[in-house]
Amino acid sequence: MDDERKVGKALTIVQKYGIRVVILPNPEKCPVDGVASYNDGCPYLGLSMRIARLDSFWFALMHELMHIHNEDSQMPADTIDRIPTNDRREQKANEMARNALILDKEYEAFVERGVFTFSAIEAAAASGHHPVHPSILLGRLKNDLYLDWSQFAREHPSVRDLVMQTATA
């Protein structure tokens, strides 16, 4: 299954589990990538598409799903811009989302090897317990400062149009 179909399928599966999904195409002055909360007892998650790269989409989706899984998304949605990034709930959701995408032990083994060529990144992304698109491994390496954000920039496909089509279908 190609990566575009995986994005659409993921959103469909999330909705089948009763989680409402709201996609906003980069709302003005929106400092967050996603939000998870409850409305009338039903979980929902919103993705801002502020950063429309494939890796960012998957991380934001997993991060917000982890908030729902942890049942720590009962906070009022109007407080979302005031939650500090070092909040325990945020740190736990970050850790769980990272590990759901790429197992920590696989990531740490790759980092220990210290070979950050694109071919090495492609091979590692394809060979993990959960094979992922190389941009997901690239995003994690960049976030952890092993790579500069400008490196391999063309390897981060945009998913804005795809996500918007899926959300309106």
Structural summary, described in words:
It is a single chain. This protein has 169 residues and is mostly helical. It has one domain (3-168). The chain has 7 helices and 3 strands, in the order αβββαααααα. It has helices spanning 3-16, 54-69, 88-101, 104-113, 118-127, 134-143, 160-168, and strands at residues 20-23, 34-39, 42-47. Strands 1-3-2 form a 3-stranded mixed β-sheet. Helix 2 crosses helix 3. It is globular and about 50 Å long. The mean pLDDT is 87. Residues 40-113 form the IrrE N-terminal-like domain. Pfam families: Peptidase_M78. InterPro entries: IrrE_HExxH (IPR010359).
Q: What's this, in brief?
A:
This is IrrE N-terminal-like domain-containing protein. The chain has seven helices and three strands.
